[in-house]
């Protein structure tokens, strides 16, 4: 029970630290995926800085910042629970088991992430302040609720993009934990550390970076699909279909924003996994 509380707390701290650093990268990546007229991440960065200022990079920040405290704690807690289940059932630790536990946590987390990213993406796509449709997360949710036929219809619309999110996060988070685990094993061997707690911080950061790299190598195509599902204008009573979106995309559309995804994902994962590891170890041994 105590370890579960520690997982929740350390995951929350790690998630908020990650979002504070990485949100501008999310803004640029989302714009690149939805606006073909942009020439690349540098062009996107310059235009946001010139026409929207520093706050342009932090549009839609509140919802994911608060949510990070929730869904990073969910990821780490569910992953720890899945590992406990494996141990009870005498499933030996292995790369496959590590991936599977991560995939379970990613799948559960998808149901929290999807509505948060819908709100974030809709706010991010507002470029001209004079033409803003939504004043913030609460305003967007209120308008969506008022335009829905029923509570069930509102929930359905809030979960636009769920199929792509489940695929992205189940496999992606599986690789995230697998990369970190492999990195930790190598770090212990290289540094001669007897325990994970004694691994030097720079090796923890490298291990976390490997997790971030593997996550985005798998997840980026599905992230591009999800972004389109959540940002395309569709009639009120219809939903963008996964396969229709896939068929409408050109090969290069599946890797749009890869520079930003990796540029954000690698240091983001390094920050998240390292902060969680350090905070959790401190709590356990305090």
Description of the structure:
Keywords: Membrane, Mitochondrion, Repeat, Transmembrane, Transmembrane helix, Transport. Belongs to the mitochondrial carrier (TC 2.A.29) family. By secondary structure, the protein is an all-alpha fold. The chain has a single domain (2-284), classed as Mitochondrial carrier domain (Mitochondrial carrier fold), CATH 1.50.40.10. The protein has helices at 2-34, 41-51, 62-88, 95-124, 137-146, 151-158, 162-191, 201-231, 242-248, 258-284.
Key terms:
286 residues; mainly alpha; Mitochondrial carrier fold; 0% strand
Hey, roughly how much beta strand do the residues contain? Answer: under 5%
For the largest beta-sheet, the strand count, sense and barrel status come to: none
Number of strands: 0
What is the alpha-carbon Rg in Å? 19 Å
Order of helices and strands: HHHHHHHHHH
Q: Which overall shape is indicated by the principal axes computed on the Cα atoms? A: globular
> CATH fold name, please?
Mitochondrial carrier fold
Nearest-integer average pLDDT: 88
Name the helicity range: over 70%
Corresponding CATH superfamily: Mitochondrial carrier domain
Q: What is the CATH class designation? A: Mainly Alpha
* Uncertain segments: none
Q: What is the name of the CATH architecture? A: Alpha/alpha barrel
- Counting DSSP H or I runs of 4 or more residues, the number of helices is 10
Q: What number of structural domains do the residues give?
A: 1
Structural class: mainly alpha
First-last Cα distance: 16 Å
């Amino acid at each position: 029970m105590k370890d579960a509380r520690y997982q929740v707390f350390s995951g929350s701290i790690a998630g908020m630290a990650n979002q504070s650093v990485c949100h501008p990268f999310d803004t640029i990546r989302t714009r690149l995926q939805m606006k073909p007229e942009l020439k690349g991440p540098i062009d996107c960065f310059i235009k946001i800085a010139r026409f929207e200022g520093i706050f342009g990079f932090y549009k839609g920040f509140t919802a994911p910042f608060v949510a990070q405290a929730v869904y990073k704690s969910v990821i780490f807690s569910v992953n720890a629970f899945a590992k406990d289940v494996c141990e009870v059932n005498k499933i030996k630790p292995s790369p496959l088991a590590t991936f599977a536990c991560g995939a379970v946590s990613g799948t559960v987390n998808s149901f929290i992430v999807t509505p948060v990213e819908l709100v974030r993406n809709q706010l991010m796509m507002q470029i001209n302040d004079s033409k803003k449709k939504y004043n913030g997360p609460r305003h967007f949710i209120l308008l969506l609720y008022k335009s829905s036929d029923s509570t069930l219809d509102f929930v359905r619309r809030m979960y636009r993009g769920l199929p792509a999110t489940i695929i992205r996060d189940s496999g992606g988070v599986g690789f995230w934990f697998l990369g970190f685990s492999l990195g930790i094993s190598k770090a212990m061997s290289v540094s001669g550390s007897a325990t994970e707690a004694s691994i030097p911080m720079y090796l923890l950061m490298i291990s976390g970076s490997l997790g971030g790299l593997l996550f985005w190598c798998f997840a980026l195509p599905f992230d591009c699909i999800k972004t389109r599902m959540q940002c395309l204008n569709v009639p009120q009573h219809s939903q963008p279909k996964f396969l229709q979106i896939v068929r409408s995309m050109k090969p290069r559309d599946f890797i749009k924003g890869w520079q930003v995804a990796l540029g954000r994902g690698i240091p983001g994962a390094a920050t998240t996994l390292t902060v969680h590891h350090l905070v959790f170890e401190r709590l356990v041994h305090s």
